[in-house]
Amino acid sequence: CFEICMKVIGLLETVEVDENDQLDEKALNTQEICRLCNGLFYWFFMKNPKNQELGYGELEMFLNTLDDDVNSHHVVDAIFCGNEVLMRQVPRKYFVELVDKIVKNGKSHRYLSLFAAIVNVGNKNIVENQVEIVMNLTSPGRFQKVASFFVPVHHVDYSEKRELMQPLLGIEKDFKMDELPPLLAYHISLLKVLSRCTVGRINVTAVEAKVQSVFAYNDIVDSILDDGSILVTKLYMSEFFYNAVIDVELSIPGLELSKSVWKLLDSYREVLANAKNDLMEADSLGWASPLVSSHKIQYMLVSIRIVQGFFTSYFDPTVFKDTQTTSKNKEQTNLTRSQVDEIIQDLFRFISSVHNLNSPRLSTEVKENILNALETLKKSSGKLRAEAIKLVDFDITPPIGAQEKKDDHEDKIIKKLQSFIEEIESDKTVLQKAENENVAFISLLEKLPFVADPVDADVRYEALIRKLVFHIRENIKIVDNQKRMDPRVTTTSRWIVRAFRTMIENRMGMSIYERDDEGGEKQDLAAAPVVNALNTCGATALCLDLIADGIDESLQMEAIKLGVGLLFKEGGALEVQNIMNTHLRKSNSELFFKQVRLTIQKLQAWHNWHQIIELKDGEEPNPPEEILILRMLQLMCEGHYLPNQDIMREQSFNLVTYNLLDDFANYLKCLVRLPCRTSTVAAIRLSATILEVLQGPCSGNQAHFTLNTELLETLNRLNRSKIIRDCLEGEEIDLKKTSIDILQALLEGQGDKSVVFEKLLSVLHLDIIQFMSNNLLQGKVVQKPNEYTPFKDEFIEEKIILKTECVVLLQTLCNFRPSLYDELGISRRVEDIVGSGTAMIEIIWRNDIHRRFFYVPRICDYLAKSSKDSLVENVDRSNAENKLIDFLNRSHDLYREVKHQQLLTEMNLSKIFNLTNKDRASWVTFSLAFIINMILLFQYKAYSGSEPNIEDQPALVILVLNAIQAAVAAFVLLQNLVVRVPVLYQKLQAANINSIEILLYTAAEPMTLYYLGYLAFVLLGYFVSYSFLPFLLLDIIVKNSTTQDVLNSVIFPRRQIAMGGIIILFIMQIYAFFLFMYFRHDLVADVQQDHFCRNLFDCYLVTLGYGLREGGGVGDVFRTTLGKRWLLDVSFYLAISLGMLNLIAGVIITTFGQLRENKGIRVADTVGVCFICNIDKQVFDRASAEPEGFKTHVKVDHNMWNYMYFIFLLWEQDNDDDDGMEQYVRRAIAANEIVWFPLNKAIRLDAASGHDDSLTAGMQKNIAQTESNISNKLEKFQTNLTIVLEQLNQALKKDMVLEGDGEKVPQRRNTHFHNGVHERGHDEKEALTESDFSEANAMNDVFGNEGRVLTLRVLSVTGLNVVPEDNNDIYCNVVFEDSTYKIESILIAKSERTVVFADDSTPSVVICELNDHLDDRPCHFNLVIVQPITGAIQTIPVETLKVDELVLAEDATLEMFFSIPDQTGQCKLSVMTARE
Prior knowledge:
6-stranded antiparallel β-sheet
């Protein structure tokens, strides 16, 4: 049917007029058939999206047949009715073509049908269409050609309008546009179009202002009140008045007292008096009755809207007096307060009658408007308020069956269709089936193998993703600087993009919103394969392409969500960020940044419209979903990714740059001015984005935010804000903390001579920062970290963090300007600052040493003293570098320890199971062992002939003590298993050791085995024998390092001792052999009787046992002799007793001495050298003006535990929250680098040495200043001399061109001044030589400047690539001192890329009076270009010249070359100066 009708419409091409410009019968029949087809099309397209898409495909054909009188304008209206997607896709070329047709073919209301159809859907405005339509209709020079009767009632043109309406007066009929005179129909249609262009609350302020400017409001009111106006004219004039004047963001001053407006309001008493009867007649007869006028009822309803809007936005009862007075302004009303109240009461009475009727003919929205009007009138009248009139609040839901009673067949069909759709959407079974299909399809996608998977498959995951991405991208087209997509593809694309995001969320196990609050690195790693595949297959670039002006909003929202999912990664998704940055730079990304700006402006408009939103208890803030784009921008810069931070400010790779930083600052300013929880939640998200684009630091963003926006003023207001209305304390603290972080980020990495510092100090309210620091800087201790107790204040930790951040900020500012210490009363002693939950360290960053204050996290309280002592005692102190590296390595173990202790605390076990209790219990076991052994020592007895025994009472005491010791030893073992072993398990797990090996290593952990063995000896001593108890005293070796050294003195040289022992055994074999063979009978009687030397082995045992134990060697057990054996005895004594045994003893003693020496060195390094910087104690003591300088340094500046706490802070803190310095330290720790430690550096020493060098520096500064002064004076002298010579040269040349009778002979001048440097042309006469200078000096008084003025004419600008349309859109500003001279253009030559500012008749501008001496006052030249419609002003600095340089160019053409951003080639500004 559609194709047949289109072919019929195509027959219009065959219709031709005869020689009399008339249609023959065949042509008339064809025209009538086409008219009927269009009538069918109208109902076929009306509010049917699928059919409308068909019609949109033939839109150009329908627009081309607007002049054929076949009602194509009705079809155009039906194509777009209620279809926002199609409205946004209309090419801009049609706007220009239709306006051109109006200008060329005449004013026909049919040409306006497209404009009226695409500007709004209900109250939702299509901003881009509104702006384009208004721009095309009202551009300068164009509106006069398209306007009709936009004049006062007394204007001559208005009489023509009266004549057109005259025949229609008195006719009780609702005229259609086609029934009205063409010019009148065009006038009303144009009013309707402009009126609809102001509908909506988003980004229409500029449009409203433009529409208001084309038709004065008093002229509109006079037209409505004109007796010659017919009803339909009054209706659309009133609609225009309401939309363009009353219901606007940009209010019109003085409207509340306008005489004409109050006459209009007074006339509504007559209009509304019959409103009830008219509605009752419509209810009884129906709309189809000729006796019912829908226009009359519509006029009545728009009158009520005007009343409601006026008394809401403009009415001010205080401006009216009790008595009548005559106003000096004839345009103002002189109504008294009682007269005004009378009008309000009458209006209230008449509107109440309409409200109480509760007509079923009125829609829900209309009934709400009527009720709102009554409420407004009631508040506006003191008498109505006093009477406390109650309004009947009807149930405005249409009664069941009411819709079926309507006569309008179209509404019945639409209602049934909507009801069917609602039933489907509310049917859980249908929704579940649809969702299951989606889930099933996504599940199939997820099961596809990746390219790297070693499986055989026909389809790979990446290949399918690329195909889907390509499908979407190939359907994106750019039309009229907007991206467009076929509506049929939009739905599919939306589903595909959502499927991509769902796959990421499935891998993460949570939604992207939950990932923000609860997720972390674990979820990022799980989603990494899918993210990498999507990123490499083009999904990342596709997100950016879909976030563009012209793309369907719901599809853009899905693209934003996918972008957020792709960018999630702790510390920044570098691969995704690189792809995004590359794509934005290499493609035309103007539309992306334009859409981001539009979205932020839309968010701001939403807050401006809703103003302060007070939530009820249990209600959560619900800002627009588009606010997620802020999170996407933040993630694009996550990890301080500088390339993306920079493109937020400028896009040099695009022709048009959008500075999003300005939008951020403006949006935050808007939010801060609307104190409520909804604004706070939005401000938290926005401030986090601002913080991320600054940290790193990004110096360009720092400078722009500080110098070119109102961000600092906004932060002042934010920090001073109090918790009011529905705001929550925790959220407000979070927002204030972020604001302080932003201030720190603005100063991050700034040098000593920073303009950012200066601007910030000049604007920032330091008093509120100092107040929030809560007197921490005065050294008042709030509470030490290890003194934390359960707080009733749930936000105490957040408050302490905020205070610490304020301390850090104030210290940063004081370091830049030391005078602030005294101005604010802040202590200069760093030691007064730290210790109140705040710590300080010094860090090497960006090749300089910086102090870093930070909040000590609560987790540091769990670090046990024994763990600290162990680190101090056992850390590698072989050199400074190894010491710090080992410190970093041990920090991982300590962090696991405190994290485990935190877990025990959360399980309410930490009071029992902790290292402190373990250490105490261990010492209890040793004490019990010592007591038991002392009792045994003094009470264990053995008498002659009896076994050793102990009396009953001591035995009972030992039994009890031993039982206690067994319990405590078991407790120590349990403590070790609960506190130590899990930490070891985590350490091994982090080393990627398999589970079985981890279990074996953990079970064989030395201390666990030791405590188990200790418990076993205790139990053996209890149940078996006391003989096991003395061994328990050896526990002292585990507890004391000195005893360990004694043992180590034998263990460390064990190899040497073992080798010595082997030699002794071999020597013993030699002596045993000779003693057995020759002297076995020389044994003393006691030994011989035991027959110890009956064989060689027995003799070897005698030699070994007695030879080592006897003082004189083996000879002590043999009979004394001076015979042959004497030599053997002496050699044995020398070799074994004096030689080998003393050698072994010497090795042990030497080792013990070395251990003692090493321990002494360690102690000296511990107490006499800074652990961090490795500088000796004496250096600090000598440099310090106070006693114990070293002690203060290691306690405050370089406290090793503060460095440990800072490391813990970084590990506790989310990577995304790092500033530039924290990120630098985090990466250094991850790489096990110590470059951030201030090795051999300390600020305290730098300050001391700086004082010594101050005198030398001062002398050097004075010398440099003197040299600079001499250089400046010489330069001024040289400049002055050059000016005088040039003036003389110019004066003499004037004399040389005078000939004959004194007439001046013209001469060609082509003197150019490029950037202030004078260049002579070829036609210029030769300059004077030095020999003429004396004569010139004599003439100096004649040609001096005294009493003369400098004049200037701006001639032209050439070389512009884009030349403005109108002369008013470009001008030149000449700025001298406090005056600005605006030089407007008089001619624009597009073909020559030239703008002309002056011709021969243009007068010169007097710039200044001249001095008779050196004049170096600056004169600035700027070119100003005004963008159409938006009114954006682009100011291009051209050049700054001194007055003397302008004088030198007298009567010559001064040419200044300059560049315009985003334009290739140079432009030239030509100026001519003169002295008068």
